[in-house]
Specification:
about 240 residues; alpha+beta; Deoxyribonuclease I, Chain A; six-stranded mixed β-sheet; 12 strands
């Protein structure tokens, strides 16, 4: 099976002009053209499952279209999307923000899917997609280190209750590197699909490893590629695995 993890930054792009005329101005860009390029790139990879961090569920940037649905129509399969903010947050009712979330696009039929919410942080949602032989968790953690540590502790408790081998993937925002994940990895008994810790951020000149694909020992990674593409500020991780 081939799993691709990619923080696509809502397909708003990257580059020096992203913060012109003011910081994060680029997040208001129209995204259809760049998202077509991302979809075309991912389609050529022939993935079985795609984990999209920072995907747009249908704001004006994408002319009201859901990026996960658009991608599913390209690669085939089912889109599973969730706003990354908890239901009680005002952000779930605010224009643009309510369409910001994470998604799994899967060609392998899932048995079940669910959205969980962590107790700490601004962005708390993480997706659980259950398959016949394994379960996939997709996360996007806090930028604040102390909040991240609380989220990781809560995630480890959730993982310990899993009854199948798992893939725990996402943008962890681990500016401290893989050592931030060491307690979770040790407690749950996971492996890093990227043992050499090749960096994934920023895409133009990668120096930090923020994106991880962690997995149970029963899952065997047969190949891992980090393509050097600059559709987003993150690089994608392409992971081939077997059970």
């Amino acid at each position: 099976m081939r799993f691709v993890l990619y923080n696509i930054r809502y397909a708003t792009g990257t580059g020096w002009d992203y913060h012109v005329p003011f910081p994060f101005w680029g997040c208001f860009r129209k995204t259809e053209r760049n998202f077509r390029d991302i979809s075309s790139f991912l389609t050529k990879l022939n993935p079985d499952i795609v984990g999209l961090v920072e995907s747009d569920g249908g704001s004006y940037r994408q002319n009201g279209k859901s990026q996960p649905k658009e991608m599913a129509s390209q690669i085939g399969g089912v889109p599973i999307f969730s706003c990354k903010y908890p239901p009680e947050s005002f952000m779930t009712r605010a224009p643009v923000l309510k369409a910001q979330g994470n998604a799994v696009v899967t060609r392998i039929p899932p048995l079940d899917c669910d959205v969980h919410y962590l107790s700490h942080g601004l962005k708390r949602a993480f997706l659980e997609v259950e398959y016949k032989d394994f379960v996939l968790y997709l996360v996007h953690l806090s930028l604040r280190r102390k909040t991240r540590a609380k989220q990781l502790d809560e995630l480890s408790q959730n993982c310990l209750s899993a009854k199948k081998p798992m893939i725990l993937a996402g943008d962890y925002n681990t500016f401290g590197g893989a050592k931030e994940l060491a307690p979770l990895v040790k407690r749950v008994g996971l492996k890093n699909a990227n043992p050499d810790c090749m960096p994934t951020y920023p895409s133009s000149s990668p120096r930090k490893l923020l994106d991880f694909v962690l997995h149970s020992p029963e899952i065997k990674v047969t190949n891992l590629i980090i393509p050097k593409v600059t559709f987003s500020d993150h690089l994608p991780i392409v992971c081939d695995f077997s059970l």
